[in-house]
Amino acid sequence: MAKFDMKRLSTEDKVVGGAALLGAIALFLPWYGASVGGFNTSVSGWSTSYGWLGGLLIVAAGVYQILLRSEVNLPKLPVTPTVAMLGAAILGTLIVALRWLTLPSGGGGGLGAGFSYGPAIGIFLTLIAGVAECVVGVLLFRKSGEKLPWDKSAVSEMPKARNVPPAPPAGS
Fold this sequence. Notes:
Strand content: 5-15%
Number of helices: 5
Strand order of the largest sheet: 2-1-4-3
Shape: elongated
Low-confidence stretches: 155-164
Structural class: alpha+beta
């Protein structure tokens, strides 16, 4: 088993790892809140209907990148490592952005008796973490020279499947 060495991580890896840490912390912070007079209430990222899934994907993308660079034996995926990290970061960021856009917000009232409700700091920090991962993920992808799974030139480089006779019809 390889020992973790921070020197193995590039600046990009550290940014992705830091964004994952920020995303993990932000899941526990208020994502939505309401205030009436002097009373405040809020819910964390874990309590939003589907926002927690986006936050977890952002965290998972960063953890995967750090484990990958730490030379930990990871299972083989049907896509390249950078595409896996970038895909998780993009999907997570889109889910969190969708949650943010669907949260109601507003306010009103006068002095001392006013009320307000809307997104809170946790969802904004998670969005920042996700965008940072996406930007660095695109930079890493471009630097790596990897192909997207649906790229036709990547498919043409794959070995051709052997001709296998079709299975006999069922019941014969």
